[in-house]
Amino acid sequence: MREIGAFSAKTHLSKLLESVCHGESFAITRHGRVIAFLVPADSKPVMDISDAVMGILALRTKFSKRGLKLSLKDIQQLKGMGRK
Fold first, then answer.
1. Which domains does the chain have, with CATH numbers?
2. What's the pTM value of the predicted model, to 2 decimals?
């Protein structure tokens, strides 16, 4: 996967999209940090259920370290807000 700066990606978007149509992927960076990926639509990332659960547990741990407690009701509310 090639890296390309955000400014260059904006300037050459049509060329990048043509390359993506042919199966190429790009990591878009800003100040050297990857901020987005440009990949063909048929290569949608698939998240394993165990990865999703581990992500949720890590988030709960992060919140609890800050003194925040999320109940199931809180999580369901946030989930509902994200669907609007």
1. 2-43 (3.40.1620.10), 49-82 (no CATH)
2. 0.51
